[in-house]
Structures are given as structure tokens and as C-alpha cells.
Amino acid sequence: MSSLATSTQTQVIAVQDLRAQVRSAATKALLRSLGKSALIGLSTFAIVLIIWVAVLTFSGVSPYVAKGPIDVWNFLFTDEDAVANRAEIGANLAVTMRHSVIGFAAGLAVAIIGAILFRLNRGIESALMPGALLLRSVPLIALAPVIILIVGLGTDASVAVIGGIVVLFPALVTIAFGLNSASAQMLDVVSVYGGSTLTAIRKVALPGALPSLFAAIRVSVPGAITGALLAEYLSTGDGIGRAAATYGTQAKFPDLWASVVVVTFISLIIYTVVQLIETIALTRMGMNPDRKA
């Protein structure tokens, strides 16, 4: 009995040591991935600043029209009217972010449902994919009057449709690719045990498509903001989309540049945050976050 107890205790200690090693390796991998994501985000920000300054320096555009990083900083933080400037841009930004969320949610939801339907039935994919390609190929400015006529001018539905179209196609293609890349052996296991196609998608394809889903979300974030700006310009008449157009016609170039810079900066931040969440989620699931879809 003593030898059996000793053997059992040894096995327990070995299992605990193995778990500690796995947790340690996972933590190190997570920290490396987080550091890499943060470095990419900072590098992207620095590259944007360098390109911005270089274009203004060598393009010869009048300083009255073209504003640099220092001009935007002064407009937002050090000028006499900086508080009022921040308040105005902040109010417009809040509207644009709400519209971005609407378009993002609508486009991504349709993309996920469409990708699952494509995985369930190839006939559905053959029937619907040409429509998605059509939406992708026709300029939204040409479609906007028809969309507004159907769903109404200035409505959230018009924002959802216009923003959703921008998000839909790249997200649909990326998620569908991920679902179709599921392990054939794992799918066979589900089939052998009597699982349906829907069960195989739920148990195998969807978890395996997480890298593709996160890739779709990363691509959709700037797309949703672009769609929101377009919807504001064409339909709702508010937010930064309309304000930027108004600033341009009124020669309020500091306001225009500050609005564009703030939207771009927010887009980069959200993209980086999604990338960090992706890294954490994939690392916890034992997937390699560096293998992007």
C-alpha cells in the first residue's frame, strides 16, 4: 500500500509540474505576442507620422491648406479655443462611432450567417456569392440613392446598410475561408459518431475558424468607420463625415485636419486593441496567434 501511495503521489506531482510548465510556456508566448502587437501598433503610428510630415514637406502644398502634426496638436490642446475645438470634434466623433458600431454589427452578423450557410450548402454559396460580388463592385455612391429610397434618409437603417456593405464582403470571404479550412480528420470523427453537418460546424469548423474571424474583425474595424463616414455624408448629415465636408467648403482647414487625424487615430487604436484581444484568445486556446488567416 505504501508503494502504491508513493507512486500515486509521484504521478500527481508530475502532473502538477507538467501543468506548471504548460502555464509558464503559455504565459511566455502570450507576453511575446502582446509585445509584438504593441510594437506593431507603435510602429504603424510612427510610420503614419513620418509619411504625413514627408508629404507636407515635399509636396509643396500651401501651409494654409495643409496642416502638420504640430498644427493639429495646437488646435486640440494649446490654442485659445482648444477646449471648444475638442468638444466639437468629440461630439461629432461620438456620432460617428455609434454609426460605426451599427455598420460593423450589421455587416459582420450577415457575414457570419452567410459563411455558415455557405458551409452548409454549396448551392447557397453559388446563388448568393454573385450578389456579394455585385455589392462589392458597384460604387456605394451609385447605390446610395436606391438604399436611401428604400430605408429612408437619415435613418439608422441606412447607416446599417451602407456601413454593412463596406464590412460585408471582406468579412464574408475571410470567415468562409476559415470555415472551409477545418480539419478533415476532425470532421470525420464527428461524422463517425453520428454528428450532423451543423454539429460539425459548431464543434470543429467554428472553433478552428477563430483566427479567420479575428482577421475579419480587424479588417472590418476601419471598414466600418469608412462606411459610417460615407453614410453620414450621403444620408444622415451629421457626425465627422458631414462635418469634414462642411469644414472643407468653409475653408476651416484646422478643423478638417483635426477631424481626420482623430478618426484615423481612433481607428488605429481599435485595430490594435482587437489585435491584442485576438492574441490573448488564441493563445489561451493553444493556437498560434502569429499565423494569421
From TrEMBL:
The chain crosses the membrane at residues 38-58, 101-121, 133-153, 159-179, 256-277. Its main location: membrane. One of its GO terms (biological process) is transmembrane transport. It is found in: Cell membrane. Residues 89-278 form the ABC transmembrane type-1 domain. It holds the Pfam family BPD_transp_1. It is a multi-pass membrane protein. InterPro entries: MetI-like (IPR000515), MetI-like_sf (IPR035906). Keywords: Cell membrane, Membrane, Transmembrane, Transmembrane helix, Transport. One of its GO terms (cellular component) is plasma membrane. PANTHER family: ABC TRANSPORTER PERMEASE PROTEIN MJ0413-RELATED (PTHR30151:SF0), ALKANE SULFONATE ABC TRANSPORTER-RELATED, MEMBRANE SUBUNIT (PTHR30151). Belongs to the binding-protein-dependent transport system permease family. This is ABC transporter permease subunit.
